[in-house]
Design goal:
The chain is mainly α. It is built from 15 helices and no strands. The longest helix is centred in the middle third of the chain and has 24 residues. About 40% of the residues are buried. The model has no long low-confidence stretch (mean pLDDT about 95).
Length: about 325
C-alpha cells in the first residue's frame, strides 16, 4: 500500500471527474487562508469538520416531522441528514461529479435547523424581516457560531440547498443536495406517516405508485435517483425527468395536505411555537443567561437569543422552558 497524498487525489479529480464537476484544487478558498492538508482535499477536510461539530451532533435530538414520537424507528434530523448524504453521493458518483463536495454540503445542510422541525422556522418568522430560513442559519452556524472556516463552495451549497432560496447553488453538487434532500424527506416522511397511522398505504394515489414504485422506500429512492441521473446526463446539467418531477411535486402537495398541515397536529404545532417564542422573548431580555459558547460577541440580545434557541434540540428546549417558566410560576 502507498499513501495517496492530496496532490495525487486532486490529480485524480482532474483526470476522472466530469468536465462540469467542481474540483477541490480550483476552490475559491476559505475566508481565512490555511495551509493545505497533506492527505485530504479541501472538500474532504470540510466534510470531516462538519461531522465533528457540535451542531451536527445535536441533529440526533431534533425533530424531522413527528414531535416526540413513540417508537425507535422514526426519522430524526440526523438520520434524515445521513440519508440525504447517501443519496447525494450516489448521484454524484453516477454523474462523475465531486462526491466529497456533495457529501460536505449534504452533511451540513441542516445544522442550523430549529427544534420542532419546520414549525420552529415558522415560530421565528416574526423576529426577522421576511422568512427565517434554516439554510441561512446553517451558514451562520458554520461561519460564526461554531466557525469551521469551510470552503466557499460548501457554504454556497448549504446556503442554497432549499428550493425557495434564490440565487440557486453555483455548483452542480449544490443542485444534487437540493434533489437529495427532497428525495429523502418525501420518501421517509411517507413511511413515518404510515407508521404513525396518519395515513395508510391505501391513501397513496395510484398515480404515485405507478411512477415511483409499489412500495415507499428503496424503490422510490432508486426511481428518483435514476430520474436525476438519466436526465442530467442528457442535459449536461443537474435536472430531473419531467415525469418524475411532476409526481414529486404532486407527492409534496399530498404530504402538506395530509401530513404536514393536518388539523389534528395543530395543538402540537401551537405548543411548539409557544415554547420557542417564549424562550426567545425570555433570553432576549436575559442574554447573560445564554452560555458564552452560544453568544456571538457584538450581536444585539435578540439575535443572541434567536441563535441560542434555534440551536436547541427538542428535548433541551422543552427542558429549558419548563425550568424557566415553572420556576417563575412556583418560586422556591
Amino acid at each position: 500500500m502507498q499513501p495517496r497524498t492530496r496532490q495525487l487525489r486532486e490529480q485524480l479529480e482532474s483526470d476522472l471527474l466530469a468536465p462540469e464537476a467542481t474540483r477541490a484544487a480550483e476552490s475559491q478558498g476559505r475566508q481565512v487562508a490555511e495551509e493545505p492538508d497533506v492527505y485530504r482535499t479541501a472538500f474532504e477536510r470540510d466534510r470531516d469538520r462538519i461531522t465533528h461539530s457540535k451542531a451536527f451532533r445535536r441533529l440526533k435530538h431534533k425533530t424531522q416531522v413527528f414531535m416526540n414520537p413513540e417508537g425507535d424507528h422514526y426519522v430524526t434530523r440526523m438520520t434524515h441528514t445521513l440519508q440525504v448524504t447517501q443519496i447525494g453521493r450516489a448521484m454524484a458518483r453516477h454523474l462523475g461529479l465531486n462526491e466529497d463536495l456533495t457529501e460536505a454540503i449534504c452533511l451540513g445542510h441542516d445544522v442550523g435547523h430549529t427544534p420542532f422541525g419546520h414549525t420552529g422556522e415558522e415560530a421565528l418568522d416574526p423576529y426577522v424581516d421576511g422568512d427565517w430560513l434554516h439554510s441561512e442559519q446553517s451558514v451562520r452556524v458554520m461561519s460564526l457560531l461554531e466557525p469551521l472556516n469551510l470552503s466557499w463552495e460548501v457554504l454556497d451549497g448549504i446556503r442554497a440547498h432549499s428550493w425557495k432560496v434564490d440565487p440557486p447553488p453555483t455548483s452542480p453538487e449544490g443542485y444534487l443536495c437540493r434533489f437529495a434532500d427532497r428525495i429523502a424527506y418525501l420518501t421517509h416522511d411517507v413511511q413515518d406517516a404510515i407508521r404513525a397511522g396518519v395515513i395508510s398505504y391505501e391513501d397513496i394515489p395510484a398515480s404515485f405508485l405507478d411512477v415511483l414504485g409499489a412500495e415507499p422506500g428503496s424503490s422510490w429512492i432508486a426511481t428518483m435517483i435514476g430520474a436525476v441521473v438519466d436526465a442530467s446526463s442528457a442535459a449536461g446539467e443537474v435536472v430531473m425527468s419531467e415525469e418524475v418531477l411532476a409526481v414529486m411535486h404532486d407527492l409534496r402537495a399530498f404530504m402538506f395536505e395530509r401530513v404536514y398541515l393536518r388539523p389534528d397536529a395543530s395543538d402540537q404545532k401551537e405548543r411548539a411555537i409557544y415554547v420557542i417564542r417564549q424562550l426567545v422573548d425570555y433570553f432576549s431580555v436575559h442574554p447573560t443567561e445564554i452560555p458564552d459558547t452560544f453568544r456571538l460577541s457584538g450581536e444585539v440580545p435578540m439575535a443572541q437569543a434567536i441563535d441560542y434557541v434555534a440551536g436547541m434540540t427538542d428535548r433541551y428546549a422543552l427542558r429549558e422552558h419548563d425550568r424557566i417558566f415553572r420556576l417563575r410560576l412556583f418560586p422556591d
